[in-house]
Each structure stands twice: as C-alpha cells, then as structure tokens.
Amino acid sequence: MDVPPKLSARARLFDTGHNRKTDAHDAHAVAAVAVRTKGLRVLSYDSDLEVLRMLTDRRAELISQRVQTVNRLQRMLSELVPGEVKLNLTAPQAREILSRRRPRDIAGKTCKRLALEQLEDLTVIDRRIKASDKELKALVIASGSKLMDLPGIGPIGAARILADVGDVSRFADRNRFASWTGTAPLDASSGEQIRHRLSRAGNRKINHMLHMAALSQIRLDTEGRTYYRRKRTAGKTHLEALRCLKRKISDAVYRQLLDDAHHAAGASPGGQSGASRESRAADLPPHIGTSDQPLPDPHPRRYAAASRPRKSQPRQALQDAG
User: H helices then E strands: how many in the chain?
Assistant: First the structure.
C-alpha cells in the first residue's frame, strides 16, 4: 500500500504524543494507517522498471568510480610530468603522456607503473559505461516511452525518470509532480516583496536530470533557451530563470509520462485511436477557446421530439381558452 507521509506522521503524533520519528514508531504508524484507511493505492511490481533502476544505479556507481580513477591518474601524471595535467582527461590522452615519459630512478618507475595500472582500470570502466549506455537506451526504446523526444533528455535521463517515477498516476497533477522533483519553488515573500526560493526537497536524482536538461536547452538553439532569455529580460537572475526553465521541463516530462501511459493502455490522450499530443519544455498548455472546442452531437430524443409537427387545436377550443 502507498501510505502518504502526512497520514503516517499524524498517526505517529496521536500514538506517541510527539512527532519524533524512530524506525519502530514509523513502522507501527504506517501499518495502522494502511489497515484503517480505505482508498489507498495498491502498489504493483514492474520487473522492467526494476531492471532500469538497477542498471541506472550501476551506471551511477561506474561514473563515481571513473571520477576517482581519473583523479588518481591525474595525481600521478602531475608527479611524472609537471604541467601536463588536463581538465577532462581521457584514456588515450593519458596513454600518450605516459609514452613520452621514461623515468630512470626507482621512484619514477614505480609511479609510472602505478599510473599504467590506473590507466588500465580507466579503460575497463569506460568500456563498461559504454555497454551500460547501450543497454539502457535499448530498454528505454523497448518501453515505448517518448521521453527522449524532449530536448535535453537522453537515454540515461529517461531511464532514471522511468525507474524512479514508476506509475505516474500516483501524482494527482503537474504541481504534485513538480513538488516531488524539487522544481516547485518555495514562497519566501515578505510584505510587498514577492519572491521565491529554491526547494531542497524532492528527488534529487531526478532534479539533477532536469538540471542537466535545462543547461542543454540553454546551450542549444531550443525553445527552452528562448524562454530562458525572456525570463532574463524580465529582470530575473540566471539562477531564477534556470529554476523557471526546470519547472517547465518538469511539466513537459509529466505530460509526456501521461501520454506514454495512455498509449500503453491502448488509448490516445484525446480518447481516439491515432491522436497524439506533443510536449515541449518551454511550451505552455495550448489554450482552447469555446469556439475551438468540439461540440457534442445533437441528442437524438431531444431534437427528434422538437422536430415533430404540432397538432393543430380546434378553433373553438382556442376561442374558449382566450
């Protein structure tokens, strides 16, 4: 059962008289709410999403391991060849630098041997990361999701979103989804000064994916960059405009997840087979006026009854009524 944290906190407060959280009290409160509350959403296990979660976590571990390996290799190269340190060091660059260095003392030879070991580890890690990227992309395509059609979201970001979101129906609207992703700003207004500040809550992994997507849209010629520049022109700082763009991307991701869910269920977003709806990062939902909305078909009984000819009443009856 999906037990909301507010309900469990309320039960814990009524049970203990305080809201201090321990494992035992929290487990008891969650169980009490699950037993006594009706209408809670029943969780379902999806093996495909579980595979995506494990692979994305494994890739994150490989990236962290690669950063540590590159830092160790950089330290050894700085000792062997001072001034040859590169910011974004790759395995071929490190191999080319080590090939030009032939130390003669024992300390230099040992340092080069250790650097070659780190270089070999880096090569293995890079090969595993490429294989993981290829596998994740194939799984995202096989899932039928169109998240990669959004600017700035690649296979890695799409896999992380699908694995962490799971069933998008557990979010009532785009505002709840934005609160979960940490892109909904917090009100920090004071008096006549209206401002909002950054929210540190929510899923930080998804927030990081949305942050990278926003930076990609700003760097490339996309509608997101146009939206960002419009916010800067309106007087917002770089960080404030970036947060606004992240919120727009969060809304676009939510709409795309809803579209994917509708298509997976065999129905399109409009309720008709073959209909589609595009989701873009910087686009607002299209406004449909009353004249643009589809009109319902005429009710058969109502208009059929109105179209029958009325029976003519006798003239004498009409005179009596008058």
Answer: 12, 2
Q: What are the beta bridge partners of residue 187? A: 196
Helical packing angle, 238-264 and 223-233, nearest 10°: 140
**What pLDDT is attached to residue 267?**
52
Tokens of 63: 């990236």
Count of C-beta atoms within a 10 Å radius of residue 63: 13
Q: In this predicted model, what pLDDT tens digit does every residue of 238-250 receive, in sequence order?
A: 998 999 999 999 9
Query: Using one digit for the tens of pLDDT, what is the confidence trace for 179-215?
Result: 999 998 877 777 777 777 777 788 899 999 999 999 9
Extract the tokens encoding 133.
């990227």
Residues 6+ away with beta carbon under 8 Å from 275: 268, 269
Residue 140 identity: V
Would you say how long the chain is, in residues? Answer: 322
| Terminal alpha carbon distance of the chain | 72
Q: Is 143 exposed, middle or buried (0-12, 13-18, 19+ CB in 10 A)?
A: middle
pTM of structure: 0.71
- Which residues have a Cβ under 8 Å from the Cβ of 313 and sit 6 or more positions away? none
